[in-house]
UniProtKB/TrEMBL annotation:
NAD among keywords: yes
Protein name listed in UniProt: T-protein
Chorismate mutase domain sequence ranges: 1-90
Compartments, record wording: Cytoplasm
Length: 373
C-alpha cells in the first residue's frame, strides 16, 4: 500500500511541477501583455475579455471531465496575480502636459497608493504634509492637480486652508463622505473640482475591478482625462451625486461598521475564547468573524469619522437599534409565527438577489474553509 501510494504521489508531484512551469509561462506572457497595454494606454481590466475567456475555459473543462467551477477558481486566482504584476509595467500617461500633482496627506496609506499609481503613470508627484504648510504656497503655485487625502474630520478644514490655486488646477478629494468636502472645494477654488471615493482599502494589490465613485463638481471636461486614467488602472467608475452618495454610504459604511463594532465589543465584553469559536465555526461564521477582526485591525479614528460624520448616520443607527429591539420582542414572546412572517417579508424584499447572493457566497465560503488550519 505504501509503495503504491508513493508511486502515485510521485506522479502528482510531477504534474504539480508541470503546473508551476505553465503558471510561470502564463505570468511571463501577462508581463508582455502589460507592456503592450502600457504602451498604448489600454486598461488592465477588460470585463468582456475576462467573461469570454472564463466561459470558454468552463466549456472546455466540462468536455474534459474537469469541474467548470474548479478551472474558474484557478483562473480567477491567477488573473488576480496577473493584474498585480501588470502594475509593475507602468501605465500610459494620458495627460503628459499636466503640471506637478500635489497630494495633501500623501504619506498616509491612501495618499501613498495614489502617489504610486500616478508615478507609475509618469506624472510628477509632490507631497504636502502638516509640517510642510509653511511651504504650501510654493509647493502649490504651479500645481496641475491637487489631491486631498486626509482624515474625514480634517478634510473640509484642510481644503479651506489651501492657498489660492491656479485657475486651471484640478482639485480632488478622496474622503469617504462627499457632500461636505465637495462644497468646501467649490467654495475654496474657482477652477475644476471633482470628488472621488475609492471603495477599497489602501492594501489592494491592484485597481483592477475596484470601484471608484465620482461626484461631479465643476468643469467636468477638465477632469475627463483623470477618469480615463483611473480606468486604465483597471478601476470601475460609478457616477453619483454627492447627496445620494452620502445617503447610500450611511448603509454601506456607517451602519455596517457600527454593527460590526458593536458585535466585536460584545465578544470582548463576553470574553469569549476565539480559538474555540474558530475550531467550532462553520465556514460562514469563520468568514463573518474574519470580517469583524479585520475592522479592529485598522485605524479606529477612520471608523469613528465615518460613523459620526453625519447626524443622519446616527438617526439611521437608532432606527436599526429600534428594529433590533422589535426583533428581540418576537423571541421574548415566543412568537415563532411572527418571526417566520417577518423572515418571509424580508425574503420577498430581497427577491432574486437572495438566490444570487447565495450563489456568490459559495466561493467565498469555500475559500474560508480552505484557510482553516
Amino acid at each position: 500500500m505504501v509503495a503504491e501510494l508513493t508511486a502515485l504521489r510521485d506522479q502528482i508531484d510531477e504534474v504539480d511541477k508541470g503546473l508551476l512551469d505553465l503558471l510561470a509561462r502564463r505570468l511571463k506572457l501577462v508581463a508582455e501583455v502589460g507592456e503592450v497595454k502600457s504602451r498604448y494606454g489600454l486598461p488592465i481590466y477588460v470585463p468582456e475579455r475576462e467573461a469570454s475567456m472564463l466561459a470558454s475555459r468552463r466549456q472546455e473543462a466540462a468536455q474534459m471531465g474537469v469541474p467548470p467551477d474548479l478551472i474558474e477558481d484557478v483562473l480567477r486566482r491567477v488573473m488576480r496575480e496577473s493584474y498585480s504584476s501588470e502594475n509593475d509595467k507602468g501605465f500610459k500617461t494620458l495627460k503628459p502636459d499636466l503640471r506637478p500633482v500635489v497630494i495633501v496627506g500623501g504619506r498616509g496609506q491612501m495618499g501613498a497608493l495614489f502617489q504610486r499609481m500616478l508615478t507609475l503613470s509618469g506624472y510628477q508627484v509632490r507631497i504636502l504634509e502638516q509640517e510642510d504648510w509653511p511651504q504650501a504656497e510654493t509647493l502649490l503655485a504651479d500645481a496641475g492637480m491637487v489631491i486631498v487625502s486626509v482624515p474625514i474630520h480634517l478634510t473640509a478644514e484642510v481644503i479651506s486652508r489651501l492657498p489660492p490655486l491656479p485657475d486651471d488646477c484640478l482639485l480632488v478629494d478622496l474622503a469617504s463622505v462627499k457632500n461636505q468636502p465637495l462644497q468646501a472645494m467649490l467654495a475654496a477654488h474657482r477652477g475644476p473640482v471633482l470628488g472621488l471615493h475609492p471603495m477599497f482599502g489602501p492594501d489592494v494589490g491592484s485597481f483592477a475591478k475596484q470601484v471608484i465613485v465620482y461626484c461631479d463638481g465643476r468643469q467636468p471636461e477638465s477632469y475627463q482625462w483623470l477618469l480615463e486614467q483611473l480606468q486604465v488602472w483597471g478601476a470601475r467608475l460609478h457616477r453619483i451625486s454627492a447627496v445620494e452618495h452620502d445617503q447610500n454610504m450611511a448603509f454601506i459604511q456607517a451602519l455596517r461598521h457600527f454593527a460590526t463594532f458593536a458585535y466585536g465589543l460584545h465578544l470582548a465584553e463576553e470574553n469569549v475564547q476565539l480559538e474555540q469559536l474558530l475550531a467550532l465555526s462553520s465556514p460562514i461564521y469563520r468568514l463573518e468573524l474574519a470580517m469583524v477582526g479585520r475592522l479592529f485591525a485598522q485605524d479606529p479614528q477612520l471608523y469613528a469619522d465615518i460613523i459620526m460624520s453625519s447626524g443622519n448616520n446616527i438617526a439611521l443607527i437608532k432606527r436599526y437599534y429600534q428594529r433590533f429591539g422589535e426583533a428581540i420582542s418576537l423571541l421574548e414572546n415566543g412568537d415563532k409565527a411572527a418571526f417566520v412572517e417577518s423572515f418571509s417579508r424580508v425574503e420577498h424584499w430581497f427577491g432574486d438577489y437572495a438566490r444570487r447572493f447565495q450563489e456568490e457566497s459559495r466561493s467565498l465560503l469555500r475559500q474560508a474553509n480552505d484557510s482553516r488550519a
